[in-house]
Amino acid sequence: MTQPEDPKDSQRARYVFNMTLAAVAGQVGFLTLxxxxxxxxxxxxxxxxxxTKPLITIILVLASVPVTLxxxxxxxxxxxxxxxxxxxxxxxxxxxxxxxxTKTS
Length: 105
Hints:
Blueprint: H1 7-50, H2 55-86, H3 90-101
């Protein structure tokens, strides 16, 4: 028979999970801002060097959109993979106890 979970443990687990989500959202936001600013200032600098006023800046800022999306996807996918592997699964522990009693060759 299993004992009911302590409400404080449940609240703490939810708090940790929410803080992890907030940290991932912060990383994604910072990365997005960083990529767009690098594209903007790099484009402005290159436009000044080659005397092509808005062309390179516009191209780099537009090119930063798919780069940002790919990086966001990669960060969120890695973070969720780490979160799901660290969470204890109730169904997997129940399945292991059922399987350990019936071994077949």
